[in-house]
Amino acid sequence: SSHLQKKRRAATARRQHLKSAMLQLAVTEIEKEAAAKEVEKQNYLAEHCPPLSLPGSMQELQELCKKLHAKIESVDEERYDTEVKLQKTTKELEDLSQKLFDLRGKFKRPPLRRVRMSADAMLRALLGSKHKVCMDLRANLKQVKKEDTEKEKDLRDVGDWRKNIEEKSGMEGRKKMFEAGE
Fold first, then answer.
1. Which residues form a coiled coil (predicted)?
2. Continuous segment of H or E residues that includes residue 96
3. Do residues 134 and 120 make contact, with C-beta atoms less than 8 angstroms apart?
């Protein structure tokens, strides 16, 4: 039993080691991602927001303020549109997730019961009122003459195969078969 315990301890230790290694990897990845985002942000700002040079005269200053206000307005509109789009997409995603969850959770296979049904009833159930054709399956069966051959008589005398199997099963059955020379 101590061998089994050692094995278990080793497996647990290995699992712990793997878990900590994975966590360490995740932390490194997150740090890399954050650094990349920061670089991207700096590049975007450098491209879209050139350093401000303030003009000397009052007129030029007012002109600059008007430009900046217009820019702020357009950026604000863009931000609002993007937010609305995001909210809509998030809502759609949630709805789809909920649908998926419902489908996964609720759908249980119904217990199937055997139902005796004639071919006519089956076609009626499938086709509804369109079903006109009458399918009397017995009428389509081949007629068999009543003359029994010797073989058929033997087969009939054997009777229900289940009974036959039961009779031959177990030691008693084997003894009977052995005595009969089968």
1. 27-106
2. helix 58-106
3. yes
Residue in 73, 53, 51 with CA at minimum distance from that of residue 64: 53
pTM for the model: 0.34
Distances (CA, A) of 131 to 22, 115, 118: 64, 20, 14
Inter-residue contact 167 to 173 (CB < 8 Å):
yes
pLDDT tens-digit series, residues 33-69: 999 999 999 999 988 888 878 888 899 999 999 999 9
Half-sphere exposure of 160 (CA within 13 A, CB side): 4
Measured in degrees and rounded to the nearest 5, phi and psi for residue 28 equal -60, -45
Q: Are 49 and 41 in contact (CB under 8 A)?
A: no
Helices 161-168/170-180 angle, 10° precision: 90
> What's the CA gap between 26 and 22, in Å, rounded?
6
